[in-house]
Amino acid sequence: MRPALHAEWTKIRTVAGPLWLLLGMIAATVALSTGATSVAHCTASGCGGDTTRLSLMGVYIGQALVAILAVLIISGEYGSGMIRTTLTAVPRRATAFAAKAITLTGAVAVGGTVAVLGSVLAGRLVLPDVGDQALSLTDGPTLRAVFGTVLYLILIGLLSLGVATAVRDSATSIGIVLGLLYLFPILSQTISDPDLQRLLEKIAPMSAGLTIQATTDLHSLPLSPWAGLGVTAGWAAAALVAGGLLLRIRDA
Amino acid sequence: MSAPGIVVAGLRKRYGATLALDGMSFSVRPGLVTGFLGPNGAGKSTTMRVILGLDAVDEGTALIEGKPYHSLRHPLSHVGSLLDAAALHPGRSARNHLLWLAHSQGLAARRVDQVIEQVGLTSAARRKAGGYSLGMRQRLGIAAALLGDPPIIMLDEPFNGMDPDGIIWMRGFLRSLAAEGRAVLVSSHLMSEVQDTADHLIVVGRGKAIADAGVADLIAAASGNRVALRTTAGTHAMRVLAHAGATVAATGRDTITVSGLPADRIVALLNQSAVPFSEVSAHRATLEDVYLELTRGAVEFRSATPTEVSR
Amino acid sequence: MTAPTVAPHRPGQRAGRDGFLQLLHAEWTKFRTVLGWVTGMVVAALLVVLVALLTGVSSDQKGSPAVPTGPGGEPVTDSFYFVHQPLAGNGSITVSVSALKSSIPKGPGDLRPGTVPWAKAGLIIKDGTRQGSPYAAIMATGSHGVRMQDDYVNDTAGPPGPASAESPRWLRLDRSGDTITGYASTDGTNWAKVGTAQVSGLGSTAQVGLFVASPQAVVGLGTTGSVSTAAFGDLRFQGGWTGDEWTGAQLGAHSPTFAGFPENGSGSFTRSGGRFTVTGAGDIAPAVRYSLPAAGTLSGVLTGTFAALIAVIVVGALFITTEYRKNLIYVTLAASPRRGRVLLAKAIVLGAVTFVAGLAGAVLAVPLGERLSRAHGVYMFPVTPSTELRVALGTAALLAAASILALSVGAIFRNSAGAVTTVIVAIVLPYLLIANPFMPASVANWLTRVTPAAAFAVQQTLVRYPQVANPYTPYNDYYPLAPWAGLAVLAGYAVASLAVAAVLLNRRDA
């Protein structure tokens, strides 16, 4: 396992793409978060909602870049045929796949932490007095939101890795991942049956997972924050299992 | 190590309606360059992918030193292989490509620089692989195969796209690898490429091995102890030799092919009967003849544009 | 030595005209022979239909009360406090409004004085108290001066300024057959005509009297109920009046377009001599999104457009990036060296295929979705056939423009994953953002003016009424741009990126 990990780490650091994607992810996340906090109509009594969630809104776009990174790690190899070299060097496919997943997790954890902390910092600077209370990392719910958002980004990366391993083509994989993330919330808006709407919010990888960012009004959420993140973890696990199984049984 | 080299036994694989492998069996021994010959689509690449554990078979086994590939702990120290020289990330340098491979086997970076020097890529090693010529990519692929200093080397069409200098270099290189006691398996669809390199040949057609023998034996078998005779008195010579029990045939304006008599006996008979002749030589079939003979009927595609069976 | 003469080779196959049509034909052949791309387009069309079916069957509003509709067929709010008596034949009525005060709840049961710009107090002549019946009215409003309105959708401005004890507004309504004329005065002696309305369907005996309406007030991005009280005086009338018996009631109290009184509010009227004090809630106006939150729209039925978008974006990007990955671009450019034309041919073929797929999806989805929704008791905002056609054609054009954008970005990036993500994020993310509760209307409007998401305007069917306060935000299906203008924004992005791609394709090595 260690050599396989070492190899994957060497792969990810010896091309420019992953680093630029991570930097782009950080920039886009912080930019959107800052934009959202600066346009929100905040008064002395608040911003009409959860300021923590508001200042972490950048993950809406950050997750898309994480998805590209994850997809390219595997479909790039399928595109060039290098997957055969990889599997010749590490013939145990579960090991090769796990090494990829762990390397991705590490990369997203580092990039995600910078992006999320940058967003919170921007939120504190932009929201003068209101934010101070809510955006302090010593505040339990805020810390949970910050930590949970990094975990959320990792889970989106793993979900994308699983989908890309199963689908192999990068464009189709990224389409499926972004569809899973973005379509559920839009669909649930147009469903008029409130029970079905709540169900959709409970099972959608993005809506459910981002409940981890909620710090106010917890009782009105369809799911508790950690249960919500658990749903996203379930999606990621299902995608990884599907991808891993297909990698095992298919000819490379 | 129970059985050195590669042992392939009874491989069978079907892709939909096409039978890609139909009882492929052979073995590759140390110290020899084994040519793996056959027309496009005969199953050479599929067999190699099966040996490397990339493709699964419906039946049969392929063992490396007695073990299946996927059970090898550091596989690149057992088999070095090159399947597709283009399978590179265009943005990664040759050195970094070899570096990740080395790390996957727990090898040090020092080894990477050694193999780069060995294949003569030192000056280009830190350039992005996307800008490499086909020949440079082949050399990089060879370097990757050598990385683990393996006793077995397996190369799929290594001469493809190489310039004449590269082909000469590759031939010498393969010979030296075999001389070091390694088992070397080289596939090709062109006879001339392996003519002067291989010691042993496995000829495949329609998914199975149709010949598995030493190069000298194969040529001898195809030559059939024939002797070529050049003379201006063809009719006279044929009468004399036929009388002595040989089978003769006129093959040209002043050439005759004789079989059934050794060359020294033919010279004695002609001298006895005072038949003038200018040349007597043992007829040697070329590998081309052998190959065409063997693969006749085993060729799947005889169209003007040969195509690889797509998967 | 003379060199042997060799006849130059002449191609056995005569090439056809070197025309753009050939290029189109070649690209079409390329497209239709890749199973994945054709499947992608079929999937896109199916997704539009499937989501329409899903939104139809997932709703259950059977047994909900009927939505009142006005004489023009549009849904209306017809809920106000009406103090009336019958008027037979022609006649006129005059009154002064000396106060119009509104209250808005700050919390449950906590009513505070506030401004409701479209609170109404005045005179109305109506064909009975049936919901949606024809009428004409003249009124003082919270902050829009005197207005004359009829049949829900028509609105004419009169003298500006609010009514107060120091500066009351005198109003007069005059019936002559189907012609109703409204007059206003600021001193009770000098009268100015505000407007004339032709109200067909008024019976020979109409109900005439005082009314007070108090629509929901827009607070931030939402609305809240309100209640208003007006003081009337100097009531005079001429013509066929039956007596001096006034009946008062809150009309349309159980209408689905009436949200009810705020807590601790109720309708009433008191009379002392010629002075009336009337309290009411609701509105007499066309229904908008907030008055019918559960009603269906065409854009809701066509939510599958988002799913189809992703499919066509993937196919659009792959249509060019596959050529780069497999070096097929060498073959393509060798066959037609004028690179810009190759790209244009690709764009036309892709756009046409996407348009056809999108149109097929929309044309099936719209009637199916509408029918299913209605079968499940959902009220659908009515649309004219021409609007329906515009939405279907617009949806197809939206998908086609998005696919061409993906093709162009794919040619610029030469990387499918990056191209697909960029285009999906550019079109879908703004839509997600405008749906966010934090997003101020100004930002939401800005986003739907300048980003490719502006194109969803082509699916809007709801009408903006200046005389009805409502959060007219893109999220509520009111886009800042007109339908085709919104689509033009996306088309502009597609054309601009196609131009950039053509320039780069010519400049860069293939």
Automatic annotation (TrEMBL), chain A:
Protein name, per record: ABC transporter permease subunit
Protein origin, superkingdom: Bacteria
Listed transmembrane segments: 54-76, 97-122, 142-164, 171-191, 226-247
Source organism of this protein record: Actinoallomurus vinaceus
Keywords of this entry: Membrane, Transmembrane, Transmembrane helix
UniProtKB/TrEMBL annotation, chain B:
SUPFAM superfamilies associated with the record: P-loop containing nucleoside triphosphate hydrolases (SSF52540)
Domain ABC transporter: 6-231
Pfam annotation, one family: ABC_tran
GO MF term set: ATP binding
Keywords: ATP-binding, Nucleotide-binding, Transport
Signal peptide bounds: none
Keyword Disulfide bond applies: no
Family the UniProt entry places it in: Belongs to the ABC transporter superfamily.
Protein name per its UniProtKB record: ATP-binding cassette domain-containing protein
TrEMBL record, chain C:
Swiss-Prot/TrEMBL keywords: Membrane, Transmembrane, Transmembrane helix
Transmembrane segments: 34-54, 298-322, 343-369, 389-413, 420-439, 481-505
Stretches of the chain forming a coiled coil according to its record: none
The keyword Membrane belongs to this UniProt entry's keyword annotation: yes
Keyword Membrane: yes
Domain of life: Bacteria
Entry protein name: ABC transporter permease
Species whose genome carries this gene: Actinoallomurus vinaceus
Lineage: Bacteria, Bacillati, Actinomycetota, Actinomycetes, Streptosporangiales
